[in-house]
Design goal:
heterodimer; A: 6-stranded mixed β-sheet; B: mainly alpha; two-stranded antiparallel sheet; 70% helix; disordered N terminus
Chain lengths: 340, 336
């Protein structure tokens, strides 16, 4: 009984702190995204807002100015500590550099959930809700392998990555794709250390249309026989397609991608992208808000998916050219479930 | 030493000194030499590099940056700097795309509205520099952030698809094949603009005033040049040029994307510096800038074909910039 009173008064204090700062009686929950310009994070925010309304918590959102902006995220955590928030979700811009700030949040008794991108070490956060990016890559790799086997074509592969920094998401998608295609990836943690002659080359895109187009143009100059293009995300895929179209090669070349954004699904339907692995950012945010609301009520922390060091929010292959042995949904299903 | 003999090169001067004088008189020679050497070197490394198809790619890839760098050159000639170049271009491209799609404005009018918006953004920079007398670096640092923010707000960070736009919006991306060389309409517009401004800077009173203002603003003012007006015209003109770059960008992407161009602000400055235009104002020109933009394009494309890792491509271009600025300093030391 006494313990219950202590716990209850502790909770009340937290709520009172939040109330003093915010003027509402609801527990404060934070969402800190990488930027507030990327549609992926915009969608995440919308998902979190609707989940917060359902769960009866007060959602405070923050974002970095640009990709990689660690300082703004540290500032956001400091603000949440002073608000007396019960917990927050964060898509870290710098997985290692954010850890000291997270430790301070833990000292203040908060629940910290990493969304989309794990922190390093992953245990520094209480839980990680993310897409299995390696699996996302593997699915499009398996699909491409089946397609090329059916058509009896030898693959010449262009790899359009994110940037030169070997970021975890970039590495996992790239290596997952190669493994799915049946290529020996050597070190799983490194892009570009493969020696398979089927790989025509790598280039970087910054994950946007302009970068995708320039990278594809240069790789086509390097090896005009390229017929399979892996892209880090759908904007890069759209740019790559423009380069192929300008070279008159768009019909013979297959593009695969990752994301499941609505423009990307439109491109699957339009034949621009052969197959894409869809992620579920709304689900990430909803699960995150629910977990923090649960923690505020009962003090129970979320559990990882069995056999993984994170909570897998799922990935779904979307294609209008289904291949035997590779489970997929078509673009019509994709249109109903896409984000952005 | 009399004033008239200042720049005469005498027979017994060393080779280095003669070179110094030569470059001082012809600032385009240095960048041109770099460009030629780079093209020769990359052609030796990979035979594919020196083909009509590949060279036309390089021109295509630098078209947007070169157009931005043209506006940037005008500003740097007046000893200013514009950090908001890319932001104005991307924001203008989004605005003209949205005018043509969501607002349902006829394409030519949407295009003109986009140009007007870019010009207005340039005018804001010009007003703050000339009237409020703030340093250009600070002004454009502020407006860069503002324009990128507005760009995100207006577009919801969503790409406007080319398929939804009238053909005129993406027309700049279409190309005329000349054998294997594909010359895009965007590149033609860019080259015509360079020709026009090369003429305007060398042969019109406005051009002389731009140089004079950049060389010594106080002396120019005493000589009766309305330096405030010159500066305002330069920032405004640059804004218009950035908006044209935005139109060319739509053609290149076959869409208008709010998430590109974050690097363009600095890339445009890189092209100007490599082209031999001095950051201290009053010396250089637009033809050098075109060469500077081509140097960046040739290096990116050539290093990729040579199989150099991406990390080192950036390193090489950074090194080039430092060499270019050192060279500029050395040329300025022509003894008086």
């Amino acid at each position: 009984m006494r313990r219950f009173v202590v716990a209850a008064s502790g909770l009340l204090l937290v709520f009172a702190g939040a109330a003093c700062n915010r003027g509402t009686g609801e527990p404060v929950v934070g969402l800190i995204t990488k930027t507030d310009t990327n549609p992926f994070f915009v969608t995440m925010k919308v998902g979190a807002q609707s989940a917060a309304a359902t769960a009866g918590v007060d959602l405070q959102t923050f974002a970095g100015k640009v990709d990689g902006d660690n300082e703004a995220q540290v500032l956001a955590i400091e603000n949440l500590i002073s608000f007396g928030a019960v917990g927050f979700m964060i898509t870290p811009n710098d997985s290692k550099a954010i850890v000291p700030a997270i430790d301070r949040a833990h000292e203040a008794g908060m629940l910290v959930i990493a969304l989309d991108t794990p922190v390093e070490p992953a245990e520094a956060a209480d839980a990680t809700f993310a897409t299995d990016n390696y699996e996302a890559g593997r699915l499009i790799g398996q699909w491409a392998k089946a397609k090329f086997a059916t058509e009896g074509k030898d693959a010449r592969i262009a790899m359009l990555d994110l940037n030169a920094n070997q970021v975890s998401v970039d590495v996992q998608r790239d290596q997952g794709f190669l493994e799915g295609f049946g290529i020996d990836v050597a070190d799983k943690g490194r892009i570009g250390d493969e020696s398979d002659p089927r790989i025509a080359g790598h280039d970087v895109t910054d994950g946007n249309e302009e970068g995708g187009r320039t990278a594809m143009e240069n790789l086509l100059q390097k090896d005009p026989s390229i017929n399979l293009v892996y892209t880090i995300n759908e904007p890069a895929a759209a740019g790559a397609y423009q380069a192929l179209k300008a070279a008159g090669r768009e019909r013979e070349v297959t593009i695969v991608s990752v994301d499941g954004g609505c423009p990307g699904v439109d491109n699957v339907a339009g034949g621009v992208i052969g197959a894409t692995s869809m992620q579920f950012p709304i689900k990430m945010a909803e699960l995150g808000v629910a977990a923090i609301a649960e923690y505020a009520k009962t003090g129970v922390k979320p559990q990882n998916t069995a056999g993984k060091d994170f909570v897998d929010t799922g990935v779904q292959l979307i294609t209008d050219q289904p291949q035997a042995g590779v489970e997929a949904k078509d673009s019509a299903w994709g249109k109903q479930n896409c984000w952005g | 030493m009399t004033a008239t003999a200042d720049f005469e090169v005498r027979r017994h001067d060393s080779f280095g000194l003669r070179l110094q004088h030569l470059l001082h008189g012809n600032p385009v020679l240095g960048p041109l030499a770099v460009l030629v050497v780079a093209i020769v070197a990359f052609s030796i490394v990979n035979a594919r590099f020196f083909s009509a198809a590949n060279l036309s790619l390089v021109l295509l890839q630098v078209t947007v940056i070169a157009t931005l760098a043209l506006g940037q050159t005008l500003i740097i000639l007046t000893a200013g700097i514009d950090l908001s170049a890319g932001a104005i271009a991307v924001f203008s491209s989004i605005l003209m795309a949205l005018f043509a799609t969501d607002a349902g404005v006829p394409a030519p009018l949407a295009l003109l509205l986009g140009f007007a918006c870019g010009t207005a953004m340039g005018a804001i920079n010009g007003f703050l520099v000339t009237r409020i007398k703030l340093p250009p670096f600070i002004v454009t640092l502020g407006t860069l952030t503002i324009f990128f923010s507005l760009n995100s707000v207006v577009s919801n960070s969503e790409t406007v698809r080319g398929a939804d736009m009238p053909g005129l919006m993406t027309w700049t991306g279409e190309a005329i094949p000349i054998g294997d060389f594909r010359l895009s309409y965007g590149s033609i517009i860019m080259l015509l603009l360079f020709g026009f401004f090369a003429y305007a800077l060398s042969w019109t009173a406005w051009g002389k005033h731009v140089y004079a203002t950049g060389d010594d603003v106080e002396a120019a003012r005493l000589a009766g040049i309305r330096t405030g007006r010159v500066l305002f015209s330069v920032y405004t003109t640059a804004g218009l040029l950035y908006a044209v770059a935005g139109w060319i960008l739509i053609g290149r992407l076959a869409s208008a994307s709010p998430n590109v161009g974050t690097e363009y602000n600095l890339d445009s400055i890189t092209a100007v510096v490599l082209g031999g235009t001095s950051l201290f104002g009053g010396r250089g020109g637009v033809i050098g800038t075109l060469i500077g933009a081509l140097i960046v394009g040739v290096f990116r494309n050539g290093l990729q074909l040579a199989g150099v890792e991406v990390v080192w491509q950036g390193f090489a271009i950074g090194l080039l910039v430092l060499i270019a600025v050192s060279l500029d300093q050395w040329i300025r030391k022509v003894r008086s």
